[in-house]
Structure formats: structure tokens, C-alpha cells
Amino acid sequence: MNRQRFMWFLVTGVLAAVMVAGCGGGDGSTTPAPPSLIPGDNTPPGGDPRDVTPPGLSAGAFTIPGGFTDLRGVAASQQYVYVASATALYCFDKLGNLANMAVAPSTIQALAVLPPTPSVENVDMESYYFAGFPVILFNPVRDVGYFRIYAPNLDPFTTREDVDNPDAFKYIDLPDPIMDPPNSQSDYLCLRVYDMAVDRFGSIFVVMDFDIKPTPPVPDYFRGIQVANQFASYTLQRGSSVQITDDQGNPQTVSIPLFDDELDGSASGDQGTIGFDSFFPFNRTDLTFTWYTGDYTLLRDYVGLSSVTVNPFTELYTFAQMINNPLGYIRVIGEGAGNAYGSFSQNPPRDPDGNLEDEDLSEGGPSGISTDPMTDNVYICDPGNRRVQVFAPGTGDFVRTIGDGTRGRAGSQFLAPNSAAIDYEGNVFICDVNDLRVLREKQPGVHFGNIGGTVRRIDNHTPLEGATVSLGNELGAIAVRATNINGDYLINYLKTGTYYMTATKFGFDPDTAQVQILNDTTVRADFNLTPHTPAVVGSYMGSIIDDVTNLFLPNVLVEIIGTSMTATTDSIGGFLITNITPGTYQVRFSLAGYTTITRDVEIIAGSVTNDALIKMVPLPLGP
């Protein structure tokens, strides 16, 4: 029901992600950029106030007038960085410029960003509306709800003072009316929320106190887990079964929108903090994810590792049963109370006068569990020890620490870090009471470079403001930038290696390039876009996967029968055939070891016919 409202947000991002994989010519130059592109002192050259060359990421670049107060969370998409205070959500571009803000319905408790590509089985944008959208979790509000999905830049439409609701279309409130709120007549009541996480399919998991109104006590369940299932348009999945008494006094079993330890053994820790792994690579097909949750005993605070599985046929989630050991988890992160590597402080952080550094952190233990989307490394804030610890995915082995444990607001010092986020370029964002710290970790053996350039019209070389430049590799799209008034863009802190780029703008044909990022160098890649001419031909594109393994298939021969037009799929199964006369064709797909398939395809002038997912069945193995 919200498809028309939000569909246009997705078009640019989805097409950019697809076209990055199939890039071709373009300017293609990768020579070091001249000084005029990126001034050494990062100062604007003057003229129009928007005429600036953006600086690189640095601590303090992300701020608002008067500074932040009471930061609650940070999250990053391919294009934006979102910061939540107790009362508002802020949207920044990747260079720290404030793009927009939105006032929250009540106190914000958590923040997340829905993944850019949910899965190989679900890349059709019509089945996944909200790729890259931010979502906040807030204290329950009557007739509203307790979590909300916002448009990517928080304000997709021009705000007008002459309309009754200038915020219309900016967001969608959740959950569905099975809960109170928003439905005050529902028997199921959300009393309190703690934390939120999203999986790579785009489903939203909320930790909450849940009550069944007709039954004592209140609440019935502490820190249960709700799943807003993306496969079911974000309706709440019914999980645990309970016994209640109906209006006539008869016992009956009902399925409630909650997963709870007492009912089905699903693991939700007593600290209410949660997180997931399994975000990348984009063609990952595993259906079981590691579930991280904060917990504690009298002897130590720790993070427990459990698992969640989604059934590809029913599209329903199942939590692993509690393990029969003293703590109930597959394994735990936390070697004991204290400040040793891999341990968490049982005491909250305090200032020299003995006051809490952060009023929201009145107890010790882990806080703010997040995952590096490119490595699945787990970042866990340890505010009592004034640091963020990094652990290996799945095993929970200690990797490294951010922060030296001393009190301060610069360098390797922190006050009380409570939330962290890692973007697709490896930048680390950490909320530290009232400061947002932005770090670029220096990892041994890992080198970084930058890329910048200009997007122009090909006919008169005029710079194009507002063009979209996308960059990615075999794993998918990594960064998206918009050009400034001079047509310039800049992407910082990229790992060295080969990337594919696409520049697009409405009314122009896209341009593509393959680039090589060099260590400690800013390379240049310019793009020239051709204005659209009246369309007389169309195009056909798509991607092909193995029907059994769901892995992308390279080297598939794609033939338009009755013509000489062919294509071969690239390393991630993508293909594109252009300049096709409009009409209906039969297209044949063939690859050694697979059953050849044929399908009818309609080509429309000026349009790209997109078969987002084509499955090929492997031939049976011989005796």
C-alpha cells in the first residue's frame, strides 16, 4: 500500500547498483588528480557559497549548530550518515554536511539502516521498498507506534507551509495494528523498547517488554523479541504460543507477535542490546545468521552468540533454542569482568567528580553492538572502559580495540562510547555522549586512496550539478555521491584495488568507467553524459543465478533469436544488450552444464527491460 509513495526513492539506487556491475567505457582515466580538484587545505575556491570542494572525513566534521546533546545512535548507508539524539534524527552526507533533520515522536532508543540489497532471491525493487532507508526505535506513542522508517534524506518532497501535513510521505510508522500502540483496542501492548537490529533481508528485530492485556502480571514478558518481517510487508511475525483464558473462561492457545525465552527458548539477553552479522557479500545465500545479544551474570557482563534462521519457502524466522550449558549460548564474548582485552567493565563510566558520564548508562557491560558490513567483524562498545572492542565474526575472537581507556574527547580517548557504525568504505562512526567521533582505522597491510573528478555534458562540456556517481566492486555498490555546483565529486578512504563506477543524471545517458585506487593517492575519473535524444530503440538487461546454489553465473551466452545480438554474463551474472529495435523477441540462455532456457521478452523504445533474476537449472551428474 506504500509502494507508490516510496517507489521513486529506490529507482536511482537500484539502477546504480545494477549498472556498477556492468560498467564499460566512460572516460576511464585513473591519473592522479591535479591540485585544482582537491585543494590541499580543503578551502573552497570562492564564488557561489555552494561552490565548494568537500573535505575528507575527519573528527568534528559531523556536527550541528550548538553541538549534539545526548546521542543515542549512529548508522550509515551508501550515501548518508544518520545520527540520533534523544529527540531528533539528523541526516549528513558522507563529508559531514548536515542535509536534513526530523523530530522524533518520543525519546529515541535505537537507530539502524536497512541494507541496500536484501538477498539474491529478492533483488526486485517492488518486493523490497526500503533498501537504504533509516529506521528509528522510540518509546511507545499512543496511536503512532514505536518504530518508524524514514525516506533516505528525511525530506524527499519540498515542504510547503500551505498544506495541512508538511511531513506527509516522509515516513511510515510501524508496527501494524496488531499491537498497541498504534491500536489501542489490541490485546497486545508494548510497554518499553530497548534496542533494534536489521538483518540482510531488511527485516527489523525489536527487543521490548510485552504484555497481554487481559492477563496478569504486567508485563507478561521482559525483553522479548519482535520481528517485523520484510517478506510480509513488515507485519509482525507470530512466534511464541501461550495459554490464555477467553471471555467465557475457557483455556485456549494463541500465537502472539513475540519470541520469548520462557516460551520457546529464543535468546534475548538481559541487557537488551542486539546485533546481527551476515550482511555481505551481496550474493551470499546462507539463511542462518549469528545473533549477538548483551547479557550478564553476577560474575561478568558479556555478549552471547546464538543464531536466527529464515525458511526460504515459508519466509518465516526461527530462533535457535537455548543451548544446554551454564549460560545458554553457543559461545560468549567476555572473558570476565575487568579491563582486559575481550572483557567488559561491570561499572558505568563516571567523571572525576563521581557523576555518570552518560545518564543513560547507569550500569556496566557491553553497549551498542554493530557489524562491519564488508567483513562481519563485530564492534561492541565498552563504555565503562572507555573503548570500542572489535571481535571476529561467529567465533567472537578478540581482534583489536579502539580507544586507550583514558578519559578525553580527542585522539584515542573517550568519555563513554555507546554506539558505533561502520560504513561500506570502512569509516567508523562512534557516539560518545555528546560527540560524534569519525575515525579511519589504520589496519596493518591495508592501504587506502581516494578518487574524484568532474561530470560534464559531452556536447558542450558544461559541468553537471546533482549528477549521481556510484562506485562498487564484485560485492556490489559501496559508495554514492552527488556532484556539487561545479560538477565535482570526491570519495575518500577506499581500499586499494579495482572498482567500477557509473555516473547518471535524469535526462542523460549514463557513463561508466573501471578505475584503480592507488595507495595514498587521489586518482581522477571524469565522466561525460550524453543528453537523451528521442528514443527509437530499447535495451535488455538482467542477472542469472544457479537455481540450486543461488550463486551468480558468469559466461552465460544470451542470444536474441533471429538477430545477431548477443551478450555474455560478467563475473556477477549480469548482462546488458542495447540498441534493440522495439518488439517481442525470444531470448535464449545457454551455458555448459546447465539446461538451456528460452523466454519471451518485450522491448520498448526508450526503456530498459530488466529481468532481475533468471534461474538456470544444472544438468544432473552422470553415473
Give the gist of this structure.
The protein has two helices and 42 strands. Strands 15, 16, 17, 18 and 19 form a five-stranded antiparallel beta sheet that branches.
Describe, in plain words, how this protein is organized in 3D.
This protein is mainly beta and 623 residues long. The chain folds into 4 domains: 1-53 and 445-533, Immunoglobulins (Immunoglobulin-like), CATH 2.60.40.10; 68-159 and 168-242 and 251-264, no CATH class; 280-425, no CATH class; 538-616, Carboxypeptidase-like, regulatory domain (Immunoglobulin-like, Sandwich). Helix content is 4%, strand content 41%. Strands 15, 16, 17, 18 and 19 form a 5-stranded antiparallel β-sheet that branches. Strands 27, 30, 32, 34 and 35 form a 5-stranded mixed β-sheet that branches. It starts with a helix and ends in a 7-residue tail after the last strand.
